Amino acid sequence: QVQLVESGGGLVQPGGSLRLSCAASGFTFRSNTMTWYRQAPGKERELVAAISSAGGSTSYANSVKGRFTIPRDNAKNTVYLQMNSLKPEDTAVYYCNTLGKEGYWGQGTQVTVSS
User: CA 72 to CA 87: how far, in whole Å?
Assistant: First the structure.
């Protein structure tokens, strides 16, 4: 069955960096667009970043553009979210996803940006 397992979250000070990982299994990873979403308390889940199957195309929410990147390693069936210059408003649970909102989700990993 499809599994998406996120890791790498934690507590970081404003201006710091974190790298999230999402290990995928149960499907042909190299064929799928992969995305990261996040959900802050009291807010709807929002799309943060997306990467095409071969990695040649990426897109980002305006709120993270220039600070976050979404590389992938198809040999390791893993997609990452590199987060730099973190702000308190980046605090949220971050989810890995494939096949859109009706597709598959990981369990989420908490990111807290606070001094």
Answer: 24
**What pLDDT, in 10s, does the model give residues 52-101?**
999 999 999 999 999 999 999 999 999 999 999 999 999 999 999 999 88
Q: Which residues pair with 6 in a beta bridge?
A: 22
Cα-to-chain-centroid distance, residue 13: 19
